[in-house]
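Severity: low
Component: inverse-folding endpoint
Summary: output formatting inconsistent between runs
Steps to reproduce: submit the following structure tokens with default settings.
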């Protein structure tokens, strides 16, 4: 078969979805020796993907996510390659694409927590675009040969809304990389100093940092969309003045709005790190006291699992798929119950034994997931959809 993969979200530009797409392609290259693949990318990530197998080629698809060109022109680009199957790793399937496809739906967050910037659009266009999202999601589920989801929570959410999808939904879990590539000692100082985390770092005769003395800090990694509930972090931060709250994520409308709140409330222990590369991020994971995740809804919850892969104890909300994915390796709080967050956080910060136990459990929990297994299960679905008499 000739299989197309819509990889316009590939890599760092696509955040969690980009990681999923990147790992899927990476592991398919080592697993599949039968099918040929065309990987569709945008200009900003075209050079980021370098095919490692002769059966894989890449093609430019410069169509904006969720835009009209995606719906009107991308189908013709796909059709020009005479593909037997296309895998869309997100719900934004072009409605005009008439041929066979599989879709991965990670969650229904856009239906539960719409993130339109109402300040720049009239109510008419707000609801028009929301209606378009609902239509595209429903059409993708209805027309797909198969729907891949990343948790049983998302499976239940989809079947509750779209019961006709029953029988063609499969769960394939994501995974977290276990590697921890922290910065060399002499490069950690500038990072921590930039974030205001150093109390003072001893240096040798060459001026090289020999030991990091850090202000104790808690870490959050991800976007600042409303369902992430980062306002909860801002509410508890003043209650723990001895600790820094470090938020890592690319600046956008939602992070700017959060920064404005921090400035208005004069919160001195909330730090915005912006976007960080993998090595800098691994370094922050390595030296944090714990990872905090107050999200109200998650289809999988990859960031706290990645924190566990770095040995970091996790304090998470008990929402969405998080109890399913994190199991007993995290400590939980109820974001809807007043005082729950600060009570659980206080207990975690007070007890080093609790943190060490969670760290050990986290390593065991991460080992339950595998990108290789995810790709293999996806490949099986490709093969099941092989057209009769197809190559």
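Observed output (run 2 of 3):
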């Amino acid at each position: 078969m000739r299989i197309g993969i819509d990889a316009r979200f590939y890599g760092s530009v696509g955040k969690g979805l980009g990681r999923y797409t990147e790992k899927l392609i990476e592991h398919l290259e080592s697993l599949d020796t039968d099918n040929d693949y065309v990987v569709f990318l945008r200009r900003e990530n075209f050079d980021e993907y370098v095919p490692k197998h002769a059966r894989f080629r890449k093609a430019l698809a410069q169509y904006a996510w969720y835009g009209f060109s995606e719906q009107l022109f991308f189908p013709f680009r796909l059709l020009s390659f005479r593909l037997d199957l296309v895998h869309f790793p997100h719900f934004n399937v072009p409605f005009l694409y008439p041929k066979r496809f599989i879709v991965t739906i990670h969650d229904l967050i856009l239906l539960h927590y719409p993130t339109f910037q109402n300040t720049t659009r009239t109510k008419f266009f707000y609801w028009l675009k929301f209606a378009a999202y609902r239509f595209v999601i429903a059409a993708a589920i209805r027309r797909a040969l198969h729907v891949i989801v990343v948790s049983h929570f998302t499976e239940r959410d989809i079947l509750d809304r779209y019961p006709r999808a029953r029988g063609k939904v499969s769960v394939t879990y994501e995974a977290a990389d276990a590697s921890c590539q922290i910065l060399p000692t002499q490069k950690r100082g500038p990072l921590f100093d930039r974030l205001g985390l150093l109390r003072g770092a001893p240096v040798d005769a060459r001026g090289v940092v020999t030991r990091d003395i850090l202000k104790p800090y808690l870490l959050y990694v991800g976007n600042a969309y409303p369902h992430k509930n980062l306002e909860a972090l801002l509410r508890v931060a003043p209650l723990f003045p001895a600790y820094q709250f470090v938020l890592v994520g690319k600046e956008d409308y939602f992070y700017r709005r959060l920064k404005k709140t921090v400035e208005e409330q004069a919160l001195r222990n909330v730090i915005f790190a912006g976007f960080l590369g993998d090595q800098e991020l691994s370094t922050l994971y390595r030296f944090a006291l714990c990872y905090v995740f107050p999200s109200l809804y998650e289809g999988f919850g990859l960031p706290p699992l990645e924190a566990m892969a770095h040995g970091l104890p996790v304090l998470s909300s008990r929402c969405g798929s998080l109890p399913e994915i994190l199991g007993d390796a995290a400590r939980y709080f109820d974001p809807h119950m007043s005082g729950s967050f600060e009570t659980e956080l206080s207990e975690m910060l007070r007890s080093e034994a609790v943190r060490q136990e969670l760290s050990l459990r986290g390593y065991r929990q991460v080992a339950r997931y595998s990108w290789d297994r995810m790709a293999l299960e996806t490949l099986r679905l490709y093969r099941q959809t092989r057209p009769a008499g197809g190559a």
